[in-house]
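In the current project phase, our protein records have gained a structure token line. A sample record follows, to show the layout:
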Amino acid sequence: MNKKQLTMALGASLLVLCVSVLGYFAFFRTTTPVWSPSNLLNSTLEADHRDGQVYKITDNGNKLLSQMSRTVSIGDELITDSGRHYRIKTIDGFNAQAEFTGMDRELVGYIDEYEDITVPVAGGQDWKQRPVALYHTHSAESYVPTDGTESKPYNGGIFDVGDAMAAELKKKGINVLHDKTPHEPRDTNAYYRSRRTVADLMKKNPVAVIDVHRDGIPDPNYYSKNIDGKEATQVRLVVGRQNPKMQSNMEFAKRMMAYVNKVHPGLVKEIFIAKGNYNQDLMSTAMLVEVGTHTNSKEAAENGATLFADALPGLLGLGGVAQTPGGFTSPGADSSAGWRTLVWIIGIAVLGGGAFLLISSGSWQNARKRLSGYWGREFAGFMAPMKKRLNKKGDEDDNDA
């Protein structure tokens, strides 16, 4: 291969690389399922949620902060219902240690904002026409004391928990889309399959999309709580930290925990910010909700789901938030993600073009000469019509004189 052929080959490779990356960014922000190496990694992490597996998170003083069956990674974050914010710093086996980063001022602000609310505020008529969508990525998840097993493929007890949530919403006059599409098996592609379900649900313009799960830790007491005189299970909210809508998802989760706990104190246990996507890039009001664990009774989980649904309409109808066709989004919540994507696209295009110019020119000096010559020709071409018009105007002025 001679030098010219090598230059052309390298240039073509760079062009293909740039087009591929740009294509990835363009499609990643749509509602269609997309494959990419990073999505494959995220899917693996999202699927690593095994019943009986227990990750324990402690602070620097070895105080237990949380436990869960989903895999915990360095960089994951935890926000307690009181607003204490932690970040995972080290992991040794199934033991993770978290560092306190301070009080979450945004969550504390929402808690203060909802403090004086005594009656849930319903949304307007236009909002009531938009449904709340429920679905289940792990459709086999079940509750052992009631269902007799932790897993019932294609018909898990988690569907009944979703039904309890849907029934309470319907009692309040809310339109509900409860999709029971199974996404078996519970493997690395479960979230890829459920992504198609979410894309279909979004065609109905929902105000929120909620993926209903349960945890898999053996201890039933961890989630058990008497709330409003009912034996119920607490709820955990999970936000994926690897998606361009993370900021708006986080805002939604914080508002949700603050408001639901105002209406039913102690119901939402915490927010966990996990390594993964969980299809939350599709909508600003996408949320993963874990209702108890597999060793809780299904009746207790249904009670928890009912209480959660009881508070949800008031949250979605509260002011200070713009309701757009894309969902419940505060002004500018996703603007930073959009600008970051645009900057990446422009940066990649500039780097790719510069690399191609350098390779084809053979040296920085030749590249500068070609670039200056190009801009010189373009500038001259741009100025020529203007000079012609100015000369013509000058001649007309002379004639008038």
In short: The chain has eleven helices and 15 strands. The radius of gyration is 27 Å. The chain has a mean pLDDT of 79.
